[in-house]
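Shift notes (night). Ran Transcriptional regulator while the centrifuge was going.
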Amino acid sequence: MDERATQQPLPRDPAATLDVAPLRAAAAEATSLLRVLANEDRLLLLCQMTDGEKSVGELEALLDIRQPTLSQQLGVLRAEGLVTTRREGKRIFYSVSDPRALTVLGVLYGLYCPKD
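Came back to this:
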């Protein structure tokens, strides 16, 4: 049986009431991050950057993503604040800058990536 299907929800004090305003704000942040991660190319790009910065050329070679698509998706990640850039001469290096994104990527890796 799939281990994910047997996990129980987190326990919560039934007497506790939730303040909806901060919950709504947190939900908006979470859906914004998940929306960005829902694109296969962007997810693969972020996965390649979890162990450190990568140049545009490295990302292109590692993922076999054509340059126009690569530039477009890196632009989205940059606009959403998930990556930062560093220039060295003509080369641009990208790295993950959002610790929440790294945490989610770690969970996704544990659930979906093959174990070596």
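The chain has a mean pLDDT of 90. The first strand starts at residue 54 and ends at 55.
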